[in-house]
Structure to design on (461 residues):
């Protein structure tokens, strides 16, 4: 057996062991990358370490630090409260608002941060006669779409990894693809779960934070064992914090106050970051979002040193380590020719479109049970052989692969799906669990067929 095949088997085996033993994937990947690189590939240690993605580290650290400050100083909570309070009693619009909020919050560095909305949205859905499945999918689709923003984890890993292996991918284009795909799924959810019927009947009474139903008697939100993003615990804590806010609101009417100076500066910095990225991209430049985040975070830190200091502890070092370990190992695989070996195997499949469909199916299936971020970091570089011949546009395949790996996350076997099930009444859980399983598993097939057909196939003509 050749050293390349052994290295690939070790790579796959590490994913299995890390999942079964529930250990940090990045730690084992780093150690294995060094061992495989030195003993199988005959590389020097500096060559192995040279594969560590420094640019992605800067992106992840800068983005998670910037938005950690916004969360610490209360700006994110104020934005959520303001948006929900303006919905009124329009039940038809409510899932759309939660979709938009999920997109916005998930775009702030952590895709799972949007889970803070689940203990708010699910009880509100019951109050206004909205199918909990529709509300759950609205939040889940929002998480998937927002996660591919240029400032969020899925987007950073996908386009950062693509750039590191020489595949040009515009981060705004990636976000547009993810947003479009999830909007289509939202429309399907409205059609399947009575969303359009809400236009005929509106709930009586207008909504205010103090009128929100209490979400009492629940235990901690689930920290699903299959997820490796390193974000679940913080998302659960954020959700519990929102629960406490709602329960306090039940006891006394909420008094709405204006944003303080720190929060206003934070909003201006968020708008400045968004504007900078869009303007630089339109000018044909390649904006370094990590550096921009550090620049605006510096302003926010100077305005409020206390929250700036606290936010340092919330930088997502766990994900940095995981992505760094995977990409370092993939770098070793590339140096020893294992990726080229996969390219030869892919060429034997015949039609490139079939190979593209297979890799997207693999990404969706594995991601439904394991780490979405890990799948993106691993499969994006391994997709190089499929685009090497020029028959398939690299950006199209990577965008399709990324979204296919994300839209399955509402499966109850992942953190998102498990949290959605946990935040409905006990008698509703069997139904929601069954429907989310069907939806998530159907996305394993529907996603690749739809995205490969819409993105990859047209680029072959």
């Amino acid at each position: 057996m050749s050293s390349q095949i052994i290295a690939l088997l070790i790579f796959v085996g590490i994913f299995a062991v890390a999942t079964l033993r529930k250990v940090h994937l990045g730690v084992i990947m780093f150690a294995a990358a060094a061992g495989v690189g030195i003993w199988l590939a005959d590389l020097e240690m500096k060559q192995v370490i040279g594969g560590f993605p420094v640019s992605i580290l800067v992106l992840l650290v800068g983005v998670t630090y910037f938005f950690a400050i916004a969360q610490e100083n209360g700006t994110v909570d104020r934005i959520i409260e303001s948006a929900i309070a303006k919905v009124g009693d329009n039940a038809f619009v409510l899932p759309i608002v939660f979709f938009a909020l999920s997109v916005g919050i998930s775009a702030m560095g952590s895709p799972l941060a949007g889970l803070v909305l689940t203990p708010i949205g699910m009880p509100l859905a019951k109050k206004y006669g909205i199918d909990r499945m529709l509300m759950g999918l609205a939040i889940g689709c929002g998480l998937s779409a927002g996660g591919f923003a240029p400032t969020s984890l899925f987007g950073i890993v996908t386009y950062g990894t693509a750039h590191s292996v020489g595949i040009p991918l515009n981060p705004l284009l990636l976000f547009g693809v993810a947003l479009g795909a999830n909007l289509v799924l939202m429309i399907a959810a409205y059609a399947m779960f009575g969303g359009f019927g809400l236009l005929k009947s509106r709930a009586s009474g207008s909504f205010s934070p103090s009128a929100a139903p209490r979400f009492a008697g629940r235990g901690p939100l689930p920290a699903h064992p299959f997820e490796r993003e390193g974000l679940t615990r913080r998302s659960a804590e954020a959700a519990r914090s929102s629960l406490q806010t709602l329960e306090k609101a039940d006891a006394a009417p909420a008094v709405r106050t204006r944003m303080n100076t720190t929060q206003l500066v934070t909003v201006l910095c968020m708008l400045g970051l968004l504007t900078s990225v869009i303007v630089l991209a339109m000018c044909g430049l390649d904006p370094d979002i990590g550096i921009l985040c550090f620049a605006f975070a510096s302003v926010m830190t100077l305005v409020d040193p206390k929250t700036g200091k606290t936010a340092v502890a919330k930088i997502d070092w766990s994900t940095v380590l995981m992505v760094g370990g995977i990409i370092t190992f993939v770098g070793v695989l590339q140096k020893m020719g294992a990726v080229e070996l996969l390219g030869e195997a892919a060429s034997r499949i015949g039609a490139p479109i079939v190979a593209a469909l297979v890799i997207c199916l693999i990404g969706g299936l594995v991601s439904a049970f394991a780490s979405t971020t890990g799948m993106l970091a691993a499969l994006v570089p391994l997709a190089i052989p499929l685009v090497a011949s020029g028959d398939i546009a690299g950006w199209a395949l990577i965008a399709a692969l990324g979204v296919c790996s994300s839209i399955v996350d509402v499966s109850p076997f992942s953190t998102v799906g498990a949290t959605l099930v946990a935040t409905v009444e006990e008698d509703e859980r069997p139904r929601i669990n069954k429907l989310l399983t069907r939806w998530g598993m159907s996305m394993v097939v529907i996603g690749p067929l739809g995205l490969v057909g819409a993105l990859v196939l047209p680029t072959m003509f």
Notes: Confidence is low (pLDDT under 50) at residues 203-236, 242-254.
